[in-house]
Description:
208 residues, alpha/beta, Rossmann fold, seven-stranded mixed sheet, 6 helices, 7 strands, 25% strand
Amino acid sequence: MDxxxxxxxxxxxxxxxxxxxxxxxxxxxxxxVDNIAIKKLSxxxxxxxxxxxxxxxxxxxxxxxxPQELKPSRxxxxxxxxxxxxxxxxxxxxxxxxxxxxxxxxxxxxxxDAVICTVSIQYLTKPVEVFKEVNxxxxxxxxxxxxxxxxxxxxxxxxxxxxTSSQQRIQVVGRYFKNSNNWAWIKRNTFTPEHYDPLYVVxxxxxx
Length: 208
């Protein structure tokens, strides 16, 4: 059974169905949330991610927002724009891959201590398959942290994201975890300061 079928048929449609590689060909070097949200995200990363771990930055760009205190032993970025990732000072390696075309990750099983996906989850058209692959490459007890706000490229965001509220989007990401199986627990953090960008974080630990 395709577990994504619990969503309406048009949930994963987008206004622009052209290959994402073409859309993201030119580097944008954007910061998609304000400094207050970035500071909060870094604090959450510090509280969740293992110190000196091996991390995968999924749908990576020119910044990863990892706090220096984490001292990761290795960070690999997987994204769509080579120039952006080459300018990311926290990446040790980077890979070009369109996850909407190919959900299979090239990494071994149990390779990463943590995987992060920052302000990009709204663009995945086959998220359950991607979450299954993330689970595969995580070590037991490894964490997958998904963070998002209210900003997005309207041409590439999935229709279901556009049609839901912020609180419903938290539930959507939670459902991605539940439908991809083998997660021990799912947690959430909501940060909604007045006059600043909100931040929503959903994360889960791989079952042993």
